[in-house]
Structure formats: structure tokens, C-alpha cells
């Protein structure tokens, strides 16, 4: 518990998929006048340096947002969502180099409207990250729009649903460092749908050789289909550089780190599928490393 620090992974391919889709969802949800509440159950530290020892050691941003930004500059016509996401990330940086990467709390807050209308509720359990998050949020001077609570986000969510405005987005983005997180995500979505059936629930998960990870989207589809809820599922795989026999097991590959991840959105905006279908092929083109690279977008309802 608590060995996971998102600073090592900030701006990697998984953040690219998650944050790009988050931008698409929020752009749509903020088009309607009515007030919106966003809950981030696993918020992280909020802002990350891409040139510190965390990101520098892992090199994950190098193979993610940094490579994407460089490559996108050469695309004849970048997809609108890809351009939107990269412009948003650039907006947190002063010069042309990307040194700062916004985590989900800062991406969401940037897209929200006035304090009086939209609210953002952040949960983060890690002592250092919740302190860093509170400090970063204080710099925003967002008044009462953003609250930070050091509490288990799965538990904290319950008291917030349904939101007073009856319009809400919930981002569920655990680190899955403990296997029980997979089951907790399912229970969380089932419970949240009972409390607030029309909410939009956005779940991120790793595509790794672990039965619980493999089963998660299948179980979420079952929950949605039984409840009669629309869903969208998308994955991004950057693949592996070929360094040996094609039959190499994942744990034997030179880069055994996660090379794919997925998002599952319950009650997605109707525009999300088209947004992702336009952007993800370009992301694969720019970030793909070889065998296994690709993307998937599927939806129902
Ligand atoms: N959502 C962030 C983003 O996109 O920028 C990244 C979050 S990171 C993948 C997961 C975070 O959840 C970690 O910072 C971890 O400390 C925190 N965490 C782990 N278990 C938690 C829990 N039960 N409740 C709240 N936060 C938790």
C-alpha cells in the first residue's frame, strides 16, 4: 500500500488516453448551462514536473505526452481532440518545452466554469500526495470550487451522490496496486448507479496480464447492460519494440512495463465515440512502438 506515486507515470501513454478522453467528456458536459459536480476519487498530486527525478527516472512521459507533442506538430491535420488536449497541456507551460504536466484535478478545474456553477471534489489518500495536492490547489485560488479531502475515495463518493444539480461526472482512477481495487471499482459503480443513475462514470484501468484487469471491462459491461445504461470502452496499446523471439512472455520483454490501458465510461456523452475514433489512430501512429500496438473503441446503448 502507498508505494504507488503517480509522479513516476505522469504524462505516460495511459495519462494521454485518460486525459484526452476526459477533455472530450468535459467539453461536452460543460456545453449545457446547468451546474455540474465532478468527483475525482483518486486525484494524485494534481501537478507534476516532467524534468524532476521521478519523471526523469521512469522516462514514461518521454514515450508519452512528450513524443506525442513533438509528433503532432508534424501532422498535416491533427484530430480536434488531440489538438485540444495538447493545447491544454501546453497552457500549463511557459515556454515551448513541456516541463509541467497537469493531472486530472487541474485538467478538470481548467475546463470548469464559474465557482458558483461547477464544483470539483478531490479525494487522495497518500499522505505526501494529498499534501502536495492541497498545496497545488491552494495556488489556483479557486475559492470554494475545489475541495481536497484525504479520505478513501470509494467511501467518500457515497456521501456526494446524487449532486444537488443532478448533473455529475465521477472519475475513478485507482492505482490498482492492490488487487482488491478491481472489485472495489465494480462495487463503487454499482452503488453509485443506485444513488445517481444518470451520472457519468469514467473508469481507467491497466491492460496487464492479470485476470482481474482482463475481467474488469467485461464486468463493467455486465453491470451497465443489466442496469440498461449506455457505455463506451476504449483502449490504447503502444505495443512493444521487437527485441527477441515473437513468443516472448510479457515478463521477459526488455520493457516489461504496462504498454496498454483502457477507459470505460458509463452514460458517456454521445460525441465521445466520434472524438476518440478521430484521435486514437493518430495517437497510435505517433506513440506506437511495434508488435501489439493499436486501439479499440466500442460502445452500446
Ligand atoms: N487521477 C490522477 C490523474 O489522472 O492525474 C492519477 C491518480 S493515480 C493513478 C492514483 C492515486 O490514488 C494515487 O495518488 C494514490 O495515492 C491514490 N489512492 C490510492 N488508494 C486510494 C483511495 N482508496 N482513495 C483515494 N486515493 C487513493
UniProtKB/TrEMBL annotation:
Record EC number: 2.1.1.266
Catalytic reaction equation(s): adenosine(2030) in 23S rRNA + S-adenosyl-L-methionine = N(6)-methyladenosine(2030) in 23S rRNA + S-adenosyl-L-homocysteine + H(+)
Catalytic residues as annotated in Swiss-Prot or TrEMBL: 173 (proton acceptor)
The UniProt record lists the keyword S-adenosyl-L-methionine: yes
Record carries keyword Transferase: yes
Keyword terms: Methyltransferase, RNA-binding, rRNA processing, S-adenosyl-L-methionine, Transferase
Binding site for S-adenosyl-L-methionine: 19, 42, 104, 124, 152-153, 173
UniProt cross-references to InterPro entries, sorted A to Z: RlmJ, SAM-dependent_MTases_sf
Listed HAMAP family: 23SrRNA_methyltr_J (MF_00934)
Complex formation: Monomer.
Name of the featured protein: Ribosomal RNA large subunit methyltransferase J
